[in-house]
UniProtKB/TrEMBL annotation:
It comes from Jeotgalibacillus terrae. It comes from the Bacteria. The chain crosses the membrane at residues 6-25. Keywords: Membrane, Repeat, Transmembrane, Transmembrane helix. This is HEAT repeat domain-containing protein.
Length: 343
């Protein structure tokens, strides 16, 4: 019995020793590979950057070992991608990435581990490898889980202006934050196509309108304005909020609809916009809204009064002579409070 126990203990000890040796050798091999890659990277860094920037016509020699060459190229292009200054630099990066990485990335998308596939998708986007658009699209439609691989595949397709992305946005539910991620990546022509789509769900429309307001590109302003009377409340509110960010409305008369609205958020945004644009015709209405039943509306109205050309006089009148107690209190707060444009 003792012999059996000793034999089993000895076997376990031997297995542990073998495992430790294996782990040690693997770690040493990994360190040697890393050192080899870093050495090769530093050797080619400056000459290759000169080649990529067009300062040199001669392409430097890269490591003969494929794995080392791929890792060196990924490290080179990652640094280069963050410092691109023009279309020529972009094109040279794309050509180089296609030459050394495209076939490897195709293989990874088909056979690589989850982590390898996700890293590859990030590199494809960073290096603008649009020659792999079809491969990424095929890969996307094989995915079963809505995880980071799924999301990064969509980001890549958005970057490349994939036409089917519009259909996906019409059918799938995404968070507003992720929708904005996709919009930031889309080419201008894809955004124009998206604006023409009538069957978009509310989440996509509100995401678009919010994104347009944040970026402030005036080519999207008509799209925002046409939605301020949309039947959906959230779309209307996002449109009004975006107009506050644009600091513009084509027809000041249309504000009266919102200043008299039964929806408190519309009254608030209407007041904000009237103040931002210093629409003195609405001073009387804003004075009335200073006594609104909703705190946010009262604040927006008093802030708007303060932004008028004679704002200090109006605010003093509200603080001292308004018939509503809450309006007087809010006006007094605004007299001592530094206010900016509310978004």
């Amino acid at each position: 019995m003792v012999t059996v126990v000793l034999w089993i203990s000895g076997t376990f000890l031997l297995l542990q020793i073998i495992l430790l040796i294996y782990l040690s050798l693997s770690k040493q091999k990994g360190i040697r590979n890393d050192n080899s890659m870093i050495h090769a990277y530093h050797q080619v860094l400056n000459p290759y950057l000169a080649f990529l920037s067009g300062e040199s016509d001669q392409e430097p020699e890269l490591p003969s070992d494929e794995k080392t060459r791929i890792r060196v190229m990924e490290k080179l292009l990652s640094g280069y991608a963050s410092n691109i200054k023009g279309a020529g630099d972009q094109q040279r990066m794309q050509v180089t990435a296609d030459k050394y990485l495209s076939e490897y990335y195709r293989t990874v998308l088909k056979k690589g581990s989850w982590a390898e596939r996700v890293n590859t998708l990030y590199y494809i986007e960073d290096f603008t490898m649009n020659t792999l658009q079809t491969d990424v699209k095929k890969h996307f439609f094989t995915l079963q889980n809505r995880d980071e691989e799924y999301r990064q595949s969509l980001r890549v397709l958005a970057r490349f202006g994939e036409k089917e992305l519009i259909q996906l946005l019409s059918e799938e539910l995404f968070s507003m934050g992720f929708i904005k991620e996709l919009l930031r990546r889309m080419p201008a022509e894809s955004l124009e196509d998206l604006k023409k789509e009538e069957s978009l769900p509310e989440s996509v429309k509100t995401g678009m309108i919010s994104y347009f307001g944040e970026t402030g590109y005036y080519e999207h302003l008509p799209y925002v304005e046409q939605h301020i009377t949309h039947k959906d409340k959230e779309i209307r509110l996002k449109s009004l909020a975006a107009l506050c960010q644009y600091r513009y409305i084509s027809s000041a008369d249309s504000l009266s609809l919102f200043l008299d609205s039964a929806v408190w958020e519309e009254r608030m945004f209407g007041a904000r916009l009237a103040g931002i644009l210093q629409l003195t015709r609405y001073s009387t209405t804003l004075m009335k809204l200073a006594g609104d039943s909703n705190w946010w509306v009262r604040f927006a109205a008093c802030e708007a009064l303060k932004q008028m050309p004679d704002g200090e006089i109006l605010l003093t009148f509200a603080a001292e002579g308004h018939e509503d107690l809450y309006a007087r209190e809010m006006a007094r707060q605004l007299q001592t409070l530094k206010t900016g444009v509310s978004g």
